[in-house]
Amino acid sequence: MIVATMSLADLRRDYTALGLTEADAGDDPLDLFRRWFAQALGVDPDDANAMTLATAGAAGRPSARIVLLKGCDERGLSFFTNYDSRKGYELAENPYAALTFFWPALDRQVRIEGRVERTSRAESEEYFHSRPRSSRIGAWASAQSRPIADREELERAVADLEARYANAEIPCPEHWGGFRLIPETWELWQGRPSRLHDRLHYTKDPAGGWRRERLSP
Asked: Closest Cα to residue 175, out of 206, 216, 145, 207?
């Protein structure tokens, strides 16, 4: 048996990336995010769109999980899920959430907070039908977040659905679709040596545009 000899307190690394200046960042956080995202895709094309989604229901107890960014434009950032899942119920009770991207190869983190709304049914169906057939079957087979007896129960549900739709188009379930987070704040973080990181925080201005400020690391 191998026992780790390094304590958690000893786990650290220094950040050596170049900094983030206000001039480089610009006035629109979406523009900067798009540039950073393109660079993240260049170094990690498989996981660049992985983001932590934090939600809280009416009781105020937070929960978080990794979801995948599937759309990003002036309207907001979108992802898709089962509306009957825990996150779906929490967003129905409290339609505000936070997203976090972490791209360690670039020493970068992005945090976004805002109001969440459902995408249109047309958007949900368009994305659903772009997914692999197995993923469409999975959306029907999984009663997401609910207890099941065992793995075999899930696999039986998949087999039944594959037989049912063997020669038919798989429809988008009514309980499945997209959410869009409409940003109210952005924070773009660039790691720097000695933990003296660059943090630029943007807040939506009711009059239009964004207010930008630098935060202490």
From this structure: 145
